[in-house]
Amino acid sequence: YPEELAWHTNLSRKILRKSPQLEKFHQFLVSETECGNISRQEAVSMIPPLLLNVDPHHKILDMCAAPGSKTAQLIEMLHADMNVPFPKGFVIANDVDNKRCYLLVHQAKRLNSPCIMVVNHDASSIPNLQIDVDGRKEVLFYDRILCDVPCSGDGTMRKNIDVWKKWTTQNSLQLHGLQLRIATRGVEQLAEGGRMVYSTCSLNPIENEAVIASLLEKSQGALELADVSSELPGLKRMPGITKWKVMLKDGQWFEEWKDVPSNRQTQIRPTMFPVKDEEKLKAMNLERCLRILPHHQNTGGFFVAVLIKKSPMPWNKRQPKVHQKLPQRTGDTEVTAANSDNGSECITEEPTLAENEESKKMQELQNSDTEQSKKEGVCGPPPSKKMKLFGFKEDPFVFLPEDDPLFLPIQKFYALDPSFPKMNLLTRTQEGKKRQLYMVSKELRNVLLNNSEKMKVINTGIKVWSRNSDGEQFGCAFRLAQEGIYTLYPFIHARIINVCIEDVKILLTQENPFLSKFSSETQKKVKDMAMGSIVLKYDPDPEKPDDLQCPIVLCGWQGKTSLRAFVPKNERLHYLRMMGVEVFKAKRKEEESESKMEEEVQHRLAQTEEGMDVEDKEHDLVTKMEAEIGEESTHSPVESSAMEVENKIEDLDQSSKNANSHVSQESKDTDTSNVKD
């Protein structure tokens, strides 16, 4: 992994969680993962983002993004230069599953980036977006696309026990069509000269080389496979294959499409077979695909192909025109996929006459509302009733108007730089008091304002200010939020206190320390400042190499007699670790034994009073956990493991020996650690 930023341990989850010798290490992993400094991920699933060759100015689409570990890598690449608060690029992370979108939000939030937007669409028909370029509307084409499609997951057989029980050849036959549709939709939205990485955690050629070959064939030279043999030099890999057969669930093999009986032609499609024309096959360079086998470097199995777009797709030779006079609607650039006789998908991007007539009527009705909401900078969820039938109803994204009276006291209080992009501030409330202010990059603002009717946005923006009722009396009702401080800090010119390393330690270890505990310099600076929200800045001293050598920016609050930091627990622990302060707290055996005795007494009382049966509760918990994990593993075999069930059952077996209340506590602990794992 570049710059030695990835590390590997052979310790299993069970050993990591249960060994007293590893308790400190486990606490470190959980805490640092929670605040975004570590991401724990399958080694092979780190490969696709690395092969995208992302630069900070790239517009990136992650088509099937949940649970979000690859998205996190992409965000990190955008912020390669930490001195640039707003990179010109952005990541739009999409997933078809509404619930898993929130898992994606949780992963992305840890990285505190104003350049990420999470959307909820079917990847195979994700809408064309529009952006404003010098006053005219243009279709948004992405510089980089990550296409990590749903797959059978047979490459995860080392860790995922379910694969051995449930695997059949039918899995791949059912997924092939969807994988091809998603990949096709991806290359349509790719800019010329752009890169798309197609990947699966499967080793079945029907999900891999067959999809790539079909895509290359119908692209008629618009796409080519990139030669990445010189990239990631330490990675052991096998070339893509050019010959394979197709097998049905009952064991029947077929070498060519013409051999498939007519009653089986719905299950097996022509695109599943290898190309027979030797010249065509040679021109495709399928050997440039990457196959990673589990035994080569003790990983999961994985397939990766890197595609480069040289010209528009044949069916998109005339890029779709965007009518400036008409307000946008979902139908303007609608994509319909239909299966033709040869099994390939024909994509049309122009609306039909009937659609045009219908749209004119719709536009007349919606025109005034749309124009009004545009003026107000409101980006609501799509008006479609269908969307509301499943998933949560999202609050709108409302950009602050230029003359909003809310902003003036904030600007004055923090002496914000004239270059501060206040147009990029948004809230999630259209009426009533605004509680939180969020910030997006100007490029994402452009995307949001021009696509509110066709896009279901789950989350975007980074929290920069929170309403604080106490603050109003001091001149500003909004206090700074730690999540967005590194984005905001370059624009703030007032209310900054430079502190020494000892002051930082006091701020991070004490809840609300008195001013008298701080250095005399800090006390002097505070005396001259009004009460309210402040920025606490530590700058390293090169002459003291033993001290922490990286800058720290903290949000704080100055009271009458005290000074405190508003920093989340795990972020506090991170900074303290960096400063060499011991933050590890081992569980005390005496306290544990006392609490166990109390729990046993309470448990016996509960059993006699209510006649509760521990074994029944344990069984219910196990069943529930198995169901949850079964559901999770079907969605994402790469990042989830069936071993979790076994671990949870073992935890419950152990805990039931003590007490019922101890069972519930243990299962909570297990759940949280599994989320981190």
Automatic annotation (TrEMBL):
GO terms for molecular function: tRNA (cytidine-5-)-methyltransferase activity; tRNA binding. S-adenosyl-L-methionine binds at C64, A65, A66, P67, G68, S69, K70, D95, D122, D148. This is tRNA (cytosine(34)-C(5))-methyltransferase. Keywords: Methyltransferase, Nucleus, RNA-binding, S-adenosyl-L-methionine, Transferase, tRNA processing, tRNA-binding. It catalyses: a cytidine in mRNA + S-adenosyl-L-methionine = a 5-methylcytidine in mRNA + S-adenosyl-L-homocysteine + H(+); cytidine(34) in tRNA precursor + S-adenosyl-L-methionine = 5-methylcytidine(34) in tRNA precursor + S-adenosyl-L-homocysteine + H(+); cytidine(50) in tRNA + S-adenosyl-L-methionine = 5-methylcytidine(50) in tRNA + S-adenosyl-L-homocysteine + H(+); cytidine(49) in tRNA + S-adenosyl-L-methionine = 5-methylcytidine(49) in tRNA + S-adenosyl-L-homocysteine + H(+). It is found in: Nucleus; Secreted, Extracellular exosome. Belongs to the class I-like SAM-binding methyltransferase superfamily. RsmB/NOP family. It comes from the Eukaryota. The active site is at C201. The lineage of its organism: Eukaryota, Metazoa, Chordata, Craniata, Vertebrata. It is an enzyme of class 2 (transferase). InterPro entries: MeTrfase_RsmB-F_NOP2_cat, MeTrfase_RsmB-F_NOP2_dom, Pre-PUA_NSUN2, PUA_NSUN2, RCMT, RCMT_NCL1, SAM-dependent_MTases_sf. The keyword Transferase applies. Residues 315-382, 589-677 are annotated as: Disordered. Residues 1-310 form the SAM-dependent MTase RsmB/NOP-type domain. It comes from Spizaetus tyrannus. The keyword tRNA processing applies. Its main location: nucleus. Residues 336-345, 655-664 have a biased composition (Polar residues).
